[in-house]
Amino acid sequence: MLPFLLLSHRPEDEAAHAEHHSFRRIMGLRSEELVQVRMNLEQPELDFADYSGIILGGGPFNNTDMRKSVVQRQVEAYVTPIVSRVVAEDFPFLGACYGIGVVGSVVGATISRVFGEKPACITASLTPEGARDPLLAGMPALFDTLVGHVEAVETLPNEATCLVNGTDCPVQMFKVGSNVYATQFHPELELRTFIQRLQIYADNGYYEPYEYDAIVAGAAAANLETDNLILRNFRDLYAR
């Protein structure tokens, strides 16, 4: 089997390694079957023919940041042409959190801070189109999932199809073409990884310190395994 590619930009080693482990474990892949490129450290030339599909993980960068570091600008300059090519070729792709902003920007969505969400477990719902989509096969109409973001899709262009809705953030997942997907939520997160991220990014303004216990309690009470099916479906649909 050709490996899948995970594009990461988390600068913290602990967070980057945990992200790779979470995606790999939930997708049921061996280490060599999920190649990680940490774009803040390396920016190799990619040959899509070497991979079954591409995953773009989340992180502290936002498309709408007013002030961007040199590293952030370098990452954006590297990943945007990749995603543009993904869309043009309809290459198997799943972008999580940061990925929804990158794909959205490429296809002409409006990305803003209107629908930001603090770290939390939410209940998401399939749209009629989502209920028919192969990547969401087996998913219930309502499911628990984890979010935490300052920007989101405000409006989608006609060429994109919304697959999952949320209450406070309407576009939780969309699709372009037949094989390009993006989620606002994190289908790779488990409770312990979520707690780790809360701690790593405690000073990034995502939540107030006094909110920590309630956020963890809400996540602990939820079923965080249902959305894992999305990643396994991605593996089964595109492994080659």
Automatic annotation (TrEMBL):
Keywords: Glutamine amidotransferase, Ligase, Transferase. Residues 34-194 form the Glutamine amidotransferase domain. PROSITE patterns: GATASE_TYPE_1. It comes from the Bacteria. Its EC number is 6.3.5.2. Transmembrane segments: none annotated. GO terms for cellular component: cytosol. One of its GO terms (molecular function) is GMP synthase (glutamine-hydrolyzing) activity. It is an enzyme of class 6 (ligase). It holds the Pfam family GATase. InterPro entries: ChyE-like, Class_I_gatase-like, GATASE. NCBIfam families: PRK07567.1 (NF005743). This is Glutamine amidotransferase.
